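Revision sheet: structure tokens.
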Amino acid sequence: MSTRIAVSTRIQKTFDGARAENRAALMPFITAGYPSLEMSGKLLDALVEGGADIIELGVPFSDPLADGATVQASSQKALDNGTTLADCIELVRAFRERGGTIPILLMGYANPFFQYGIERLGRDGATAGVDGFLIPDLPSDESEEFQLPFRALGLDLIYFLAPTSTDRRIADVAKRATGFIYCVALTGVTGARDQLSEELPAYIARIRAMTDLPLTIGFGISKPEHVAAAAEIADGVVVASALINHLDTLPTEAQPEGARSFVRQLADATHRTPRQV
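Predicted:
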């Protein structure tokens, strides 16, 4: 089993706090610049008010390979709005200046990060108050170019595992990972699903045997019942497409309250069933 390497203090404290309350950490996702940059800032605040523990802020990209139709559409609209990676970092900076304290991770793809410059990205992100990065198209065994400068700045690089990951891949991720490990719940892209896989507990147990880092489950989590089921076996639960789908049904001015109430329902489901002694 790997030894935990603490990098982001905010992330570690968040998982430790959730564990002490016998619940999973709730991690909603929104796309920066969707439906607008101004609204993105308001949504960040609303997610916190609703009970989010960690926020994933999506960096819009033209070819988001791991994302389904919902997140792809939000990403394209954000690009049409002119949203840049620098804008995403500035959203985090403004959130911190308003007093926001929960961890924020930028979720994006390797190409825009390379174009921005990895060391510059780490430096600007750390200065703004970013806690780490999720890069779904970055294999663990090709990640040192990102990992080393990020770690020097106290930033977590979050790795992904999938149900198809081999034991060798799991071991490699466990060796390199900090913060937590993102466990993709299914084979495929992001998007709301009707139910979770019955094989999920065994899959999570296989990863758990190789690391003591927190494990989060994402992809396909769309309703409180999913959150409750995932919370029983994981340390964190990610909700993305279902939240965006819900916001898309609302007038723009109603979206902050819509985000707040939607996340509050999910947060209530993160509490685990008390263990019988």
